[in-house]
Please model this.
Amino acid sequence: MHRFHCPRDLAPGARLALPAEAAHHAIRVLRLKSGDPIGLFDGEGHEFSARITTIEGGTVWVAVEAAATNDREPPLKLVLLQGISSGERMDYTVQKAVELGVAEIWPLLAERSVVRLDRERAEKRRLHWQRVAIAACEQSGRSRVPPVHAPLRLADWLAIWRAQRQGNERALLLSPAGGARLAALGEPQGPVILLAGPEGGFTEAEAAAARHQGFLPVRLGPRILRTETAALAALAAIQALWGDF
Model:
């Protein structure tokens, strides 16, 4: 059954139109017709079965039928801090991180980031990455959409975290020079925060600032991984060690 994100009040018996992007995908890509069953989720963890009733031009009307059980969120909260990479690399990282169960994504503007964004371009990219996250939820079966936050510099994120941290987080900095291995760490007692650099990695000053705030440098074996590989490999390993893999 095809699933669509519909951030509206969903309840059995409701009749509503799919959002424009979802409607276009349903008609032009999936070639769905009146009478076809679909799934709807609001992005907050609620999912419903539904059925297409009418297609009028580019508008797809659906009838919500019943609430559905969805238990696909991992028990371990994973937060990804990702140095912004260029082109499709960042899209790929966002997409696969959502499939792997990440709960939040913070794009970071690092000193060695190839991509440079002013405020207007940063918001456009954030909206684009959020759409990538929504599509990944539709594909992977998740009903809770992870927020993609506005891009920040690492120093600014660390300042926010310093003021809001709960004390039970495990903060990990991916580093080829890291001395710790994931498999040697004990099971976390709270959220895991994963910090991954852009194409050129973090500068020593950035890495030092992260370490000063409690981030533990860890390495993923003896090989140097590309930016679009490193965070995803770490997320998969974390899920296998302490999550629901």
Summary: The first helix runs from residue 20 to 29.
